[in-house]
Every structure is written in C-alpha cells, then in structure tokens.
# Entry
Amino acid sequence: MLDNNVGIAEMGSVVDVSEADWDRVFAVNLKSAFLAMKHVIPVMARQGGGSIINISSIASIRHTGISYVTYAASKAADEPDDAHHGGRNSQPNMSASTQFCRA
# Structure
C-alpha cells in the first residue's frame, strides 16, 4: 500500500505568494505523489496488485477561512477523478478527499 499523505502551505493569496513558493508547495504536495506512484505502480503490478491512497483536503473544494491558495490549489489538483491505473486487479474506489486505487 502507498499512502500519499503530505502537505505544506505558504500563507497568502494569489497576489501575495511568490512563484518560488508556489512551485515549492506544488513540488511537495503534488509532484511527490506523482513520483511515488510512478515508481510503486510497476512494483505493485509485478506483485499482483496493491492499493494507493492519495489524501486531499476539504480546502480543495471550499474556502476554510485561511488564506493559503498554494495548499488549496495543490490539494485540488490531487482530487480523485475517473482516471486510474488499469490492469489486473485494478479497481478505483474514490471519495471526495481520499482516493483509493488498486494497481
């Protein structure tokens, strides 16, 4: 099982946050999940299956009263959709803030 449960934030609105801070938050919150899945899915496929859990946040779908656009945007990008890694023993099972996929 892979549990992508990571999140950092830079405080501020889209006007306040620097591009470097935006890039750093997306690298930690989103790119890390991509890289982990990229390397774990082939291992899971060789082992006959596995589970991937991508943790998102309520901040991805509504304002929480805290101005951290970097966190909200990066977690929205991690929201589940209908895409999943297909193949043997593959079955998506997704909710609004947690995504479960079997490789």
